[in-house]
Amino acid sequence: MPEIEFLNRIRVKASQKKKTIVLPESHDERVLRAAEILSKENISSIITLGDEEKVRADASGFGVDLHGIRIINPEKSEKLSDFTNIFYNLRKHKGVTIEGQKRPLRRIFSLPA
User: Fold this and answer.
1) Cα–Cα distance measured from residue 66 to residue 23, given in angstroms and rounded to the nearest whole number
2) Residue 55 above 60 pLDDT?
3) Cα angle at 56 between 52 and 57, to 5 degrees?
4) CA within 13 Å, CB half, 31
5) pTM exceeds 0.90 for this model
6) SS in 3 state form for 15-42?
7) How far are the Cα atoms of 39, 63, 104, 106 from residue 36, in angstroms, in the given order?
């Protein structure tokens, strides 16, 4: 039972800090179930990334309730350019280019190439 007590202490502390968690692989059942639990237990605000229709269809198929969970489609987001620039600036010392950063971002966000 010490593990359960430890987990409960983590939940209490996390819910007090109320951070936002962004989950990129939102077509994975485990990710959707985790999003549902975190949201329902009011541990954190949740954002999932992906095509909203597909994410909602997947969640429905898994019996997952996404009420209160924000879904952002990075492909259509006005922030995609910002994400690309941030990623580029973090990795430019390795000789990468802005154009070269779009592929990793697409992979991270599970977007088509």
Assistant:
1) 13
2) yes
3) 115
4) 18
5) no
6) HHHCCEEEECCCCCHHHHHHHHHHHHCC
7) 5, 10, 27, 24
The pairs formed by 48-51 with CB atoms below 8 angstroms and a separation of 24 or more are: 48/22, 48/23, 48/24, 48/72, 49/22, 49/23, 49/24, 49/73, 49/74, 49/109, 49/110, 50/24, 50/26, 50/74, 50/109, 50/110, 51/75
Query: Chain-wide mean pLDDT for the chain?
Result: 81
The amino acid present at 9, given as its one-letter code, is: R
b/e per residue 57-92 (b: at least 16 CB within 10 A): ebbeeeebebeebebbbbeeeeebeebbeebbeeee
Q: Residue 35 is encoded by which pair of tokens?
A: 């999003």
